[in-house]
Amino acid sequence: MSYTAQRQASIVVIAAGVSDPSSTxxxxxxxxxxxxxxxxxxGVAAMVTVVPVASLAGxxxxxxxxxxxxxxxNAAIEAIASADAIVAATPVYKAGLSGLFKSFxxxxxxxxxxxxxxxxxxxxxxxxxxxxxxxxxxPLFAYLRALAVPTAxxxxxxxxxxxxxxxxxxxxxxxxAHIVNSGLAGAIADATWxxxxxxxxxxxxxxxxxAINLESSLMKLAAGGTLTKPA
Amino acid sequence: MLLALGRxxxxxxxxxPHGVVQDGTVPILAEGCMALxxxxxxxxxxxxxxxxxEQGMTTNSSGMQFGIFSxxxxxxxxxxxQTPSEAERIEGMIQIAQRADEVxxxxxxxxxxHNPPFFSSSPxxxxxxxxxxxxxxxxxxxxxxxxxxxxxxIAEDYAMLQHVAKGRMDLMLGRGNxxxxxxxxxxxxxxGLPLALENYNLLHQLWSEDVVDWEGSFRTPLQGFxxxxxxLDDVAPFIWHGxxxxxxxxEQAAYYGNGYFANxxxxxxxxxxxLVDFYRQRFEHYGHGxxxxxxxxxxxxxxxxxxxxxxxxxxxxxxxGSPIYGHAYSLDDYIAQTPTSVGSxxxxxxxTLTFQEGFGDYQRQLWNLDAAGLPLEMVLxxxxxxxxxxxxxxxxxxxxxxxxGAADAPTHASRVLAKYGDAAARQPRPxxxxxxxxxxxxxxxxxxxxxxxxxxxxx
Lengths: 231, 459
Hints:
The structure holds two protein chains of two kinds. The termini of chain A are far apart. Chain A contains eight helices and seven strands, in the order βαβααββαβαββααα. Chain A is an alpha/beta fold. Chain A is globular and about 70 Å long. In chain A, helix 1 (23-41) packs across helix 6 and helix 2 crosses helix 4 (99-106). In chain B, the strands form three sheets. A nine-stranded parallel β-sheet of chain B has the order 3-2-1-13-10-9-8-5-4, with helices on one face. Chain B has a two-stranded antiparallel sheet with strand order 6-7. Chain B folds into two domains: 64-406, Alpha-Beta Barrel (TIM Barrel), CATH 3.20.20.30; 429-459, no CATH class. In chain B, strand 9, helix 8 and strand 10 (296-298) form a beta-alpha-beta unit. In chain B, helix 7 packs parallel to helix 8 (273-285) and helix 11 crosses helix 12. Chain B contains 13 helices and 13 strands. By secondary structure, chain B is an alpha/beta fold. Chains A and B meet through helix 1, strand 2, helix 2, helix 3 and helix 8 of A and helix 6, helix 7, helix 8 and helix 10 of B.
């Protein structure tokens, strides 16, 4: 173990398990731990912050219904905004992703994860639900323009006794570490930021500066101009 | 390697977005007269009026205006279970405005809605009735829909209101927040923002120029069109642009040197500061004055009681019974996290003073007092306490904190003075009907004869 690494990265774990101990949290922790190891192997020191969605459940509902966010919720959202990588883990309920997890994702700014590498993970009570991670989580993070790594993890009760789960976790962690190490996410976000629609004064990292394009056609219309008509 | 795995400990707590409060000392002028540099729409006459306020006058020509705004909701009183009729609420609203005038408030503003449970589909009619039965209060809107109304009709209706109110009016433009209003009025909500921007560009032109030739993307072109009546004294009503999230609207307000209003409700404290700051910067960019001289208005919500606890006890059933608030928040959290003031006179004063600390010197403060089904008698009492106990203290306090560079709230009188100085204001007199109900090629006796109006050809 070395503290001499020059580069640092932050990993934020979004885990929507509700029991204690929670298998979803355990899965997310294993992925995060492996990711830290994989990054260390590439000379990157990683720090993990866990957003335990269950403990923010009331705040998530209040924000959904009324729009106001608690300080704790804001802190969690800002941690996500400044994260270099994300581990997103949810239990499967009623053949789908957890409503609490989806509600939490729903209150995030659309541009908060642009090109961020994400490991997708679900825990399920039966192998018949294993594809929820591909069918439901991957499209959700595609909407957010996140960079979900190729390997997604589904852990069912029998998986916990199988070494294969560890192999898949290590593979996803390695994929994540290489994307983080490459600087690809920042390069993509920098290069495409102006092309995405942004929430004014939002929390996404690049929102703080230069989010307003004064040269847009709407800004010109605002300043007494006319809309350019398609030919 | 750092590994901080485990329950998230909340060490990241403490960053409150948008909650930036300006730091620094506030200059206090010993004499209490606000020194006004030449920057904005003011001359010596305005300066003198600003000093009068310090001497206890409560005219609306002071540096800052205080008033109330209503969305015109007809809400069930959650305590009695009764819902006022439309007739009762409309009559009540006129009484509220009249009481606001009597107790020295400067502004009464009403929203525009086109569906129940709201009544204010035709704000100019209501405001004309209020202007006719009040003495000094400025009537305004919060907001007039610049998206779904024809800007030509806005120009006509509000110029007419300006005449009958003898200049005691202005208006605030907004995009509206009710989705079906767009299709009801034949508009496309996905074009809401360009519609708002283009419509105001036209409205500005209609009030600035006697004869308008115009073509845009959303409306029938205009050829040789004169909006009548011309604005009172040929000075257009002052425009506020209301917006809660749209930099383009702040940009438009800045470009034209108009006011920018943040409703300051239903959101965390100082949530709107980035937009207000952006407007101030752009106002300066366009050469209307320094960013401190930009014209900023803020909303707010208040319930004022004799004591802190008394106010909360009295207001709580209305808050909790409101479908907007009660289902989502506790009253105490809401008071702590948002600009809403519920408390004693002093608490409401103190909270309002934080607005100036956070947003900088501003020109107009409006409170919503009548939502959530409060009965009329209670609203009238609130208006009275606001006008007689809260606002007089705020006038004094905010005037003493005001930077010498801050602009006065624009009024018709100040805008006439800025345009004409000591000269007489223009009073357009039309040329005679030349047949076909039009004046021919020149609309007014003082129109430039060299400029010939071309009417559209009709087949």
